[in-house]
Amino acid sequence: MNAHDSDRMEEALRADGWARAESADDADLIVLNTCSVREKAEQKLRSEVGKLAPLKLRNPGLVLAVAGCVAQQEGEKLLARVSYLDLLIGPDNIADLPRLAREQRDGAPPRAHTVFDLDAPQFLAAAPAAGDIPVSAWVTTMKGCDERCSFCIVPYTRGPERYRPASEIIAEIERWVAGGSREVTLLGQTVDSYRDASLPPPASDDPDESQFPSLLRAIASRIPGLTRLRYTSPHPRHATAELARAHAELDVLAKHVHMPVQSGSDRILKRMIRRYTRVEYTERMQRLKASRPGLTLSTDVIVGFPGETDADFEATLDLVKDVGFTGLYGFKYSPRPFTPALKLANDVPESVKSERLARLFALAESQTRAHLDSLVGTSQRVLVEGASKVNGKVTGRTERNEIVHLDIPAERELVGALVDVEIAQAFKHSLHGVLDAATIAALPLRLPGAARPERRRRVLPILS
Asked: How far is CA 5 from CA 2, 10, 102, 171, 399, in A?
Protein backbone atom coordinates (compact mmCIF):
# COMPACT_ATOMS: atom_id res chain seq x y z
CA MET A 1 0.00 0.00 0.00
CA ASN A 2 2.81 2.43 0.82
CA ALA A 3 4.61 1.65 -2.44
CA HIS A 4 1.34 2.32 -4.27
CA ASP A 5 0.92 5.61 -2.39
CA SER A 6 4.50 6.60 -3.28
CA ASP A 7 3.74 6.08 -6.95
CA ARG A 8 0.66 8.28 -6.67
CA MET A 9 2.74 11.00 -4.93
CA GLU A 10 5.27 11.02 -7.71
CA GLU A 11 2.53 11.26 -10.36
CA ALA A 12 0.86 14.16 -8.53
CA LEU A 13 4.15 16.03 -8.21
CA ARG A 14 5.13 15.46 -11.83
CA ALA A 15 1.72 16.75 -12.94
CA ASP A 16 2.45 19.92 -10.95
CA GLY A 17 5.76 20.50 -12.73
CA TRP A 18 8.21 18.77 -10.41
CA ALA A 19 10.97 16.57 -11.86
CA ARG A 20 13.21 13.91 -10.41
CA ALA A 21 16.48 15.19 -8.94
CA GLU A 22 19.75 13.35 -9.48
CA SER A 23 20.68 13.42 -5.79
CA ALA A 24 19.57 14.72 -2.41
CA ASP A 25 22.05 17.60 -2.77
CA ASP A 26 20.18 18.79 -5.89
CA ALA A 27 16.68 18.42 -4.46
CA ASP A 28 14.13 21.08 -3.52
CA LEU A 29 11.83 18.48 -1.94
CA ILE A 30 12.44 15.17 -0.19
CA VAL A 31 9.47 13.03 0.87
CA LEU A 32 9.81 10.16 3.34
CA ASN A 33 6.76 7.91 3.06
CA THR A 34 6.23 5.90 6.22
CA CYS A 35 4.57 2.91 7.85
CA SER A 36 3.82 2.59 11.56
CA VAL A 37 2.59 -1.00 11.78
CA ARG A 38 5.79 -1.83 13.66
CA GLU A 39 7.98 0.33 15.89
CA LYS A 40 11.04 -0.52 13.77
CA ALA A 41 9.63 1.54 10.89
CA GLU A 42 9.41 4.59 13.14
CA GLN A 43 13.00 4.04 14.25
CA LYS A 44 14.09 3.94 10.62
CA LEU A 45 12.28 7.23 9.99
CA ARG A 46 14.08 8.92 12.87
CA SER A 47 17.37 7.65 11.52
CA GLU A 48 16.68 8.85 7.98
CA VAL A 49 15.47 12.26 9.13
CA GLY A 50 18.61 12.62 11.24
CA LYS A 51 20.78 11.96 8.18
CA LEU A 52 19.02 14.80 6.34
CA ALA A 53 19.63 17.41 9.06
CA PRO A 54 23.05 18.54 7.72
CA LEU A 55 21.58 18.85 4.24
CA LYS A 56 18.82 21.09 5.58
CA LEU A 57 21.40 23.29 7.30
CA ARG A 58 23.32 23.71 4.03
CA ASN A 59 20.14 24.30 2.03
CA PRO A 60 17.47 26.03 4.19
CA GLY A 61 15.12 26.19 1.18
CA LEU A 62 14.92 22.40 1.00
CA VAL A 63 11.45 21.12 1.92
CA LEU A 64 11.54 17.99 4.10
CA ALA A 65 8.20 16.17 4.20
CA VAL A 66 7.02 13.06 6.01
CA ALA A 67 4.02 11.24 4.54
CA GLY A 68 2.05 8.15 5.44
CA CYS A 69 1.04 6.52 8.69
CA VAL A 70 3.72 7.94 11.01
CA ALA A 71 2.73 11.42 9.86
CA GLN A 72 -0.92 10.58 10.58
CA GLN A 73 -0.06 9.06 13.95
CA GLU A 74 2.24 11.79 15.25
CA GLY A 75 0.98 14.96 13.54
CA GLU A 76 2.01 18.19 15.25
CA LYS A 77 4.00 16.25 17.87
CA LEU A 78 6.52 15.18 15.24
CA LEU A 79 6.90 18.75 13.99
CA ALA A 80 7.55 19.88 17.56
CA ARG A 81 10.21 17.20 18.10
CA VAL A 82 12.02 17.68 14.77
CA SER A 83 12.49 21.38 14.15
CA TYR A 84 13.81 21.05 10.59
CA LEU A 85 10.78 19.15 9.27
CA ASP A 86 8.51 21.30 7.11
CA LEU A 87 5.49 19.22 6.20
CA LEU A 88 3.51 16.20 7.36
CA ILE A 89 0.75 14.70 5.21
CA GLY A 90 -1.50 11.76 6.02
CA PRO A 91 -2.42 8.91 3.64
CA ASP A 92 -5.68 10.61 2.65
CA ASN A 93 -3.96 13.86 1.67
CA ILE A 94 -1.68 12.80 -1.18
CA ALA A 95 -3.51 14.99 -3.71
CA ASP A 96 -2.61 18.05 -1.62
CA LEU A 97 1.13 17.34 -1.60
CA PRO A 98 2.08 19.51 -4.63
CA ARG A 99 0.18 22.54 -3.32
CA LEU A 100 1.51 22.20 0.21
CA ALA A 101 5.08 21.67 -1.00
CA ARG A 102 4.89 24.85 -3.07
CA GLU A 103 3.54 26.75 -0.07
CA GLN A 104 6.54 25.59 1.92
CA ARG A 105 8.86 26.71 -0.87
CA ASP A 106 7.18 30.12 -0.68
CA GLY A 107 7.90 30.44 3.04
CA ALA A 108 4.81 29.01 4.76
CA PRO A 109 5.30 27.83 8.37
CA PRO A 110 5.66 24.08 9.05
CA ARG A 111 2.36 22.28 8.76
CA ALA A 112 0.72 18.95 9.57
CA HIS A 113 -2.11 18.05 7.19
CA THR A 114 -3.65 14.77 8.35
CA VAL A 115 -7.38 14.86 7.64
CA PHE A 116 -9.43 11.75 6.85
CA ASP A 117 -11.78 12.10 3.86
CA LEU A 118 -14.65 10.34 5.62
CA ASP A 119 -17.56 12.23 4.05
CA ALA A 120 -16.35 12.14 0.46
CA PRO A 121 -13.60 9.53 0.05
CA GLN A 122 -11.21 10.20 -2.80
CA PHE A 123 -9.10 7.58 -4.55
CA LEU A 124 -6.28 8.81 -6.74
CA ALA A 125 -6.37 7.02 -10.07
CA ALA A 126 -3.01 6.00 -11.49
CA ALA A 127 -1.64 8.22 -14.23
CA PRO A 128 1.74 6.70 -15.11
CA ALA A 129 4.01 8.39 -17.61
CA ALA A 130 4.29 6.91 -21.09
CA GLY A 131 6.96 4.25 -21.14
CA ASP A 132 6.61 3.70 -17.39
CA ILE A 133 3.93 1.00 -17.41
CA PRO A 134 4.90 -1.91 -15.14
CA VAL A 135 4.21 -5.51 -16.08
CA SER A 136 2.49 -5.88 -12.69
CA ALA A 137 0.43 -2.95 -11.41
CA TRP A 138 -1.26 -2.14 -8.10
CA VAL A 139 -4.86 -0.90 -7.92
CA THR A 140 -6.41 0.21 -4.65
CA THR A 141 -9.96 -0.93 -3.81
CA MET A 142 -10.54 0.60 -0.37
CA LYS A 143 -9.14 2.61 2.51
CA GLY A 144 -9.00 1.93 6.22
CA CYS A 145 -10.01 -1.01 8.37
CA ASP A 146 -12.93 -1.82 10.69
CA GLU A 147 -11.44 -4.94 12.28
CA ARG A 148 -9.89 -3.31 15.37
CA CYS A 149 -7.42 -6.12 16.07
CA SER A 150 -5.95 -5.37 19.47
CA PHE A 151 -2.35 -5.11 18.21
CA CYS A 152 -2.96 -3.03 15.09
CA ILE A 153 -2.63 0.72 14.60
CA VAL A 154 -4.04 0.76 11.03
CA PRO A 155 -7.61 1.81 12.01
CA TYR A 156 -6.08 4.84 13.73
CA THR A 157 -3.70 5.83 10.93
CA ARG A 158 -5.90 5.00 7.92
CA GLY A 159 -9.36 5.39 9.40
CA PRO A 160 -12.53 3.32 8.95
CA GLU A 161 -13.27 1.29 5.83
CA ARG A 162 -14.24 3.26 2.74
CA TYR A 163 -14.72 1.45 -0.54
CA ARG A 164 -13.79 2.67 -4.00
CA PRO A 165 -16.59 2.36 -6.58
CA ALA A 166 -16.26 -0.79 -8.68
CA SER A 167 -16.59 1.26 -11.85
CA GLU A 168 -13.44 3.24 -10.91
CA ILE A 169 -11.50 0.08 -10.09
CA ILE A 170 -12.43 -1.57 -13.38
CA ALA A 171 -11.70 1.59 -15.38
CA GLU A 172 -8.23 1.88 -13.85
CA ILE A 173 -7.43 -1.78 -14.53
CA GLU A 174 -8.58 -1.28 -18.13
CA ARG A 175 -6.12 1.62 -18.46
CA TRP A 176 -3.25 -0.43 -17.05
CA VAL A 177 -3.96 -3.33 -19.38
CA ALA A 178 -4.36 -1.05 -22.40
CA GLY A 179 -0.98 0.47 -21.51
CA GLY A 180 0.75 -2.91 -21.38
CA SER A 181 0.36 -4.27 -17.84
CA ARG A 182 -0.27 -8.02 -17.75
CA GLU A 183 -1.03 -8.47 -14.05
CA VAL A 184 -2.88 -6.45 -11.41
CA THR A 185 -2.85 -6.76 -7.64
CA LEU A 186 -5.90 -5.37 -5.82
CA LEU A 187 -4.96 -3.57 -2.60
CA GLY A 188 -6.88 -3.08 0.62
CA GLN A 189 -6.31 -3.31 4.36
CA THR A 190 -9.01 -6.01 4.41
CA VAL A 191 -9.42 -6.31 0.68
CA ASP A 192 -11.97 -9.13 0.81
CA SER A 193 -14.42 -7.10 2.93
CA TYR A 194 -15.21 -5.01 -0.18
CA ARG A 195 -18.73 -3.70 -0.76
CA ASP A 196 -20.40 -1.69 -3.53
CA ALA A 197 -24.14 -1.32 -4.04
CA SER A 198 -23.71 -1.44 -7.81
CA LEU A 199 -22.56 -5.08 -7.66
CA PRO A 200 -24.75 -8.15 -7.12
CA PRO A 201 -25.53 -8.58 -3.40
CA PRO A 202 -23.55 -11.00 -1.22
CA ALA A 203 -24.25 -14.65 -1.91
CA SER A 204 -25.71 -15.26 1.56
CA ASP A 205 -26.89 -13.54 4.73
CA ASP A 206 -23.65 -14.50 6.46
CA PRO A 207 -22.35 -11.23 7.99
CA ASP A 208 -18.83 -12.25 6.91
CA GLU A 209 -19.92 -12.49 3.27
CA SER A 210 -18.92 -9.51 1.16
CA GLN A 211 -19.15 -8.45 -2.47
CA PHE A 212 -15.48 -9.06 -3.12
CA PRO A 213 -16.19 -12.23 -5.14
CA SER A 214 -18.59 -10.17 -7.26
CA LEU A 215 -15.84 -7.61 -7.86
CA LEU A 216 -13.46 -10.37 -8.96
CA ARG A 217 -16.07 -11.72 -11.37
CA ALA A 218 -16.76 -8.25 -12.78
CA ILE A 219 -13.06 -7.66 -13.43
CA ALA A 220 -12.64 -11.06 -15.10
CA SER A 221 -15.68 -10.43 -17.29
CA ARG A 222 -14.93 -6.84 -18.29
CA ILE A 223 -11.17 -7.15 -18.89
CA PRO A 224 -10.41 -10.31 -20.87
CA GLY A 225 -6.94 -8.97 -21.73
CA LEU A 226 -5.80 -9.22 -18.10
CA THR A 227 -3.41 -12.16 -17.69
CA ARG A 228 -3.37 -12.48 -13.90
CA LEU A 229 -5.28 -11.03 -10.97
CA ARG A 230 -4.03 -11.06 -7.38
CA TYR A 231 -5.18 -9.39 -4.16
CA THR A 232 -3.72 -8.46 -0.77
CA SER A 233 -4.31 -8.53 2.12
CA PRO A 234 -7.50 -10.43 2.82
CA HIS A 235 -8.94 -11.18 6.26
CA PRO A 236 -9.77 -14.81 7.10
CA ARG A 237 -13.31 -13.87 8.19
CA HIS A 238 -14.22 -13.08 4.60
CA ALA A 239 -12.59 -16.15 3.06
CA THR A 240 -16.03 -17.62 2.50
CA ALA A 241 -17.25 -20.44 0.28
CA GLU A 242 -18.15 -17.85 -2.35
CA LEU A 243 -14.55 -16.62 -2.48
CA ALA A 244 -13.35 -20.21 -2.91
CA ARG A 245 -15.91 -20.65 -5.68
CA ALA A 246 -14.50 -17.59 -7.46
CA HIS A 247 -11.04 -19.15 -7.34
CA ALA A 248 -12.43 -22.37 -8.79
CA GLU A 249 -14.21 -20.62 -11.66
CA LEU A 250 -11.99 -17.64 -12.62
CA ASP A 251 -8.85 -18.68 -14.48
CA VAL A 252 -7.45 -15.16 -14.22
CA LEU A 253 -7.04 -15.50 -10.44
CA ALA A 254 -3.51 -16.48 -9.46
CA LYS A 255 -3.00 -19.77 -7.65
CA HIS A 256 -1.73 -18.05 -4.53
CA VAL A 257 -3.35 -16.29 -1.59
CA HIS A 258 -1.61 -14.45 1.25
CA MET A 259 -3.90 -14.93 4.26
CA PRO A 260 -2.63 -13.54 7.61
CA VAL A 261 -3.32 -15.80 10.61
CA GLN A 262 -1.16 -14.13 13.33
CA SER A 263 -1.41 -17.05 15.79
CA GLY A 264 -2.40 -20.70 15.95
CA SER A 265 -3.71 -20.47 19.50
CA ASP A 266 -7.40 -19.82 20.08
CA ARG A 267 -6.60 -18.10 23.36
CA ILE A 268 -4.21 -15.67 21.69
CA LEU A 269 -6.50 -15.15 18.70
CA LYS A 270 -9.19 -14.06 21.13
CA ARG A 271 -6.81 -11.65 22.88
CA MET A 272 -5.88 -10.30 19.45
CA ILE A 273 -9.59 -9.78 18.62
CA ARG A 274 -9.18 -11.67 15.35
CA ARG A 275 -12.78 -12.98 15.41
CA TYR A 276 -12.09 -16.49 14.12
CA THR A 277 -10.83 -19.71 15.67
CA ARG A 278 -8.01 -21.96 14.64
CA VAL A 279 -10.48 -24.53 13.31
CA GLU A 280 -12.35 -21.90 11.29
CA TYR A 281 -9.12 -20.60 9.79
CA THR A 282 -7.86 -24.08 8.92
CA GLU A 283 -11.16 -25.14 7.34
CA ARG A 284 -11.28 -21.98 5.21
CA MET A 285 -7.71 -22.48 4.03
CA GLN A 286 -8.42 -26.11 3.15
CA ARG A 287 -11.45 -24.96 1.17
CA LEU A 288 -9.35 -22.41 -0.72
CA LYS A 289 -6.65 -24.97 -1.53
CA ALA A 290 -9.28 -27.45 -2.72
CA SER A 291 -10.84 -24.82 -4.99
CA ARG A 292 -7.93 -24.94 -7.43
CA PRO A 293 -5.30 -27.70 -7.58
CA GLY A 294 -1.84 -26.37 -6.79
CA LEU A 295 -3.00 -23.22 -4.98
CA THR A 296 -0.46 -22.15 -2.35
CA LEU A 297 -0.82 -20.06 0.79
CA SER A 298 1.43 -17.67 2.67
CA THR A 299 0.72 -15.87 5.93
CA ASP A 300 1.74 -13.39 8.65
CA VAL A 301 2.51 -14.45 12.24
CA ILE A 302 3.16 -12.40 15.37
CA VAL A 303 5.25 -14.03 18.11
CA GLY A 304 5.47 -12.88 21.70
CA PHE A 305 2.01 -11.32 21.91
CA PRO A 306 1.14 -10.44 25.52
CA GLY A 307 0.31 -13.61 27.42
CA GLU A 308 1.68 -15.99 24.79
CA THR A 309 2.87 -19.15 26.53
CA ASP A 310 5.10 -21.91 25.23
CA ALA A 311 1.94 -23.94 24.55
CA ASP A 312 0.41 -21.07 22.57
CA PHE A 313 3.53 -20.79 20.46
CA GLU A 314 3.67 -24.54 19.86
CA ALA A 315 0.07 -24.31 18.62
CA THR A 316 1.23 -21.73 16.10
CA LEU A 317 4.02 -24.02 14.87
CA ASP A 318 1.51 -26.85 14.54
CA LEU A 319 -0.82 -24.67 12.48
CA VAL A 320 2.02 -23.65 10.14
CA LYS A 321 2.70 -27.36 9.54
CA ASP A 322 -0.98 -28.30 9.22
CA VAL A 323 -1.83 -25.62 6.65
CA GLY A 324 1.44 -26.11 4.77
CA PHE A 325 2.32 -22.49 4.07
CA THR A 326 4.91 -22.02 1.35
CA GLY A 327 5.78 -18.52 2.57
CA LEU A 328 5.60 -16.72 5.91
CA TYR A 329 6.31 -13.27 7.30
CA GLY A 330 7.03 -13.35 11.02
CA PHE A 331 7.27 -10.46 13.45
CA LYS A 332 7.88 -9.89 17.14
CA TYR A 333 4.95 -8.21 18.88
CA SER A 334 5.56 -4.46 18.94
CA PRO A 335 3.40 -2.22 21.19
CA ARG A 336 1.72 0.46 19.12
CA PRO A 337 0.09 3.70 20.27
CA PHE A 338 -3.70 3.78 20.73
CA THR A 339 -4.10 -0.01 20.45
CA PRO A 340 -6.11 -2.08 22.97
CA ALA A 341 -3.15 -4.43 23.46
CA LEU A 342 -1.37 -1.67 25.38
CA LYS A 343 -3.67 -2.56 28.29
CA LEU A 344 -2.17 -6.05 28.33
CA ALA A 345 1.13 -6.66 30.07
CA ASN A 346 3.93 -7.01 27.52
CA ASP A 347 5.13 -9.98 29.51
CA VAL A 348 7.08 -12.02 26.97
CA PRO A 349 10.81 -11.28 27.38
CA GLU A 350 12.66 -10.03 24.31
CA SER A 351 14.97 -13.03 24.42
CA VAL A 352 11.97 -15.37 24.29
CA LYS A 353 10.48 -13.44 21.37
CA SER A 354 13.76 -13.75 19.49
CA GLU A 355 14.03 -17.48 20.17
CA ARG A 356 10.45 -18.10 19.05
CA LEU A 357 10.86 -16.03 15.92
CA ALA A 358 14.01 -17.98 15.01
CA ARG A 359 12.16 -21.29 15.44
CA LEU A 360 9.24 -20.02 13.39
CA PHE A 361 11.54 -18.91 10.57
CA ALA A 362 13.40 -22.22 10.63
CA LEU A 363 10.14 -24.13 10.20
CA ALA A 364 8.80 -21.78 7.53
CA GLU A 365 12.04 -21.83 5.54
CA SER A 366 12.15 -25.62 5.63
CA GLN A 367 8.63 -25.71 4.17
CA THR A 368 9.50 -23.10 1.55
CA ARG A 369 12.65 -24.96 0.53
CA ALA A 370 10.84 -28.31 0.33
CA HIS A 371 8.19 -26.72 -1.89
CA LEU A 372 10.76 -25.10 -4.19
CA ASP A 373 12.81 -28.29 -4.38
CA SER A 374 9.69 -30.16 -5.50
CA LEU A 375 9.46 -27.90 -8.56
CA VAL A 376 12.90 -28.73 -9.95
CA GLY A 377 12.45 -30.54 -13.27
CA THR A 378 8.90 -29.28 -13.79
CA SER A 379 7.61 -26.85 -16.38
CA GLN A 380 6.21 -23.60 -15.00
CA ARG A 381 4.54 -20.63 -16.68
CA VAL A 382 6.35 -17.42 -15.72
CA LEU A 383 5.29 -13.82 -16.23
CA VAL A 384 8.55 -11.91 -16.66
CA GLU A 385 8.47 -8.60 -14.77
CA GLY A 386 11.87 -6.98 -15.29
CA ALA A 387 15.57 -7.00 -14.60
CA SER A 388 16.79 -9.33 -11.87
CA LYS A 389 19.02 -8.25 -9.00
CA VAL A 390 21.40 -10.84 -10.45
CA ASN A 391 23.32 -9.29 -13.36
CA GLY A 392 22.48 -10.62 -16.80
CA LYS A 393 19.16 -12.13 -15.78
CA VAL A 394 15.51 -11.21 -15.77
CA THR A 395 13.02 -12.24 -13.14
CA GLY A 396 9.33 -13.07 -12.96
CA ARG A 397 6.79 -15.07 -11.02
CA THR A 398 4.76 -18.18 -11.54
CA GLU A 399 1.02 -18.05 -11.02
CA ARG A 400 1.66 -19.40 -7.50
CA ASN A 401 4.04 -16.47 -6.76
CA GLU A 402 7.35 -18.34 -6.88
CA ILE A 403 10.16 -16.03 -8.03
CA VAL A 404 12.04 -17.36 -11.07
CA HIS A 405 15.33 -15.97 -12.45
CA LEU A 406 16.03 -16.50 -16.15
CA ASP A 407 19.04 -16.08 -18.43
CA ILE A 408 18.22 -14.24 -21.60
CA PRO A 409 20.34 -13.35 -24.63
CA ALA A 410 21.17 -9.65 -24.73
CA GLU A 411 19.54 -9.17 -28.13
CA ARG A 412 16.14 -10.60 -27.09
CA GLU A 413 13.31 -8.95 -25.14
CA LEU A 414 11.51 -11.01 -22.53
CA VAL A 415 9.99 -8.48 -20.14
CA GLY A 416 6.20 -8.74 -20.21
CA ALA A 417 6.23 -12.17 -21.81
CA LEU A 418 4.37 -15.16 -20.41
CA VAL A 419 6.66 -18.11 -21.04
CA ASP A 420 6.93 -21.78 -20.12
CA VAL A 421 10.26 -22.57 -18.49
CA GLU A 422 11.92 -25.65 -17.07
CA ILE A 423 12.94 -25.25 -13.44
CA ALA A 424 16.61 -26.19 -13.26
CA GLN A 425 17.55 -25.20 -9.71
CA ALA A 426 15.98 -24.19 -6.40
CA PHE A 427 17.49 -21.57 -4.11
CA LYS A 428 16.46 -20.52 -0.61
CA HIS A 429 13.64 -18.24 -1.74
CA SER A 430 13.58 -18.47 -5.53
CA LEU A 431 14.13 -20.65 -8.59
CA HIS A 432 16.30 -20.67 -11.70
CA GLY A 433 14.49 -21.44 -14.93
CA VAL A 434 15.68 -22.32 -18.42
CA LEU A 435 14.04 -21.43 -21.74
CA ASP A 436 14.31 -23.79 -24.66
CA ALA A 437 15.89 -22.66 -27.94
CA ALA A 438 12.58 -22.43 -29.78
CA THR A 439 11.10 -20.09 -27.15
CA ILE A 440 14.19 -17.87 -27.25
CA ALA A 441 14.10 -17.70 -31.05
CA ALA A 442 10.45 -16.58 -30.95
CA LEU A 443 11.16 -13.66 -28.61
CA PRO A 444 11.21 -10.15 -30.12
CA LEU A 445 14.51 -8.36 -30.63
CA ARG A 446 15.42 -5.60 -28.19
CA LEU A 447 15.89 -2.08 -29.48
CA PRO A 448 19.54 -0.98 -29.36
CA GLY A 449 20.36 0.73 -26.06
CA ALA A 450 17.01 -0.12 -24.45
CA ALA A 451 17.26 -0.81 -20.73
CA ARG A 452 15.16 -3.48 -19.11
CA PRO A 453 12.71 -2.00 -16.59
CA GLU A 454 12.94 -2.75 -12.90
CA ARG A 455 10.36 -5.16 -11.51
CA ARG A 456 8.65 -2.57 -9.29
CA ARG A 457 9.58 0.82 -7.97
CA ARG A 458 9.73 0.53 -4.18
CA VAL A 459 10.71 4.03 -3.08
CA LEU A 460 9.68 7.57 -3.87
CA PRO A 461 12.51 9.31 -5.76
CA ILE A 462 13.94 12.64 -4.76
CA LEU A 463 12.21 15.46 -6.63
CA SER A 464 13.09 19.00 -7.54
From this structure: 5, 9, 20, 19, 25
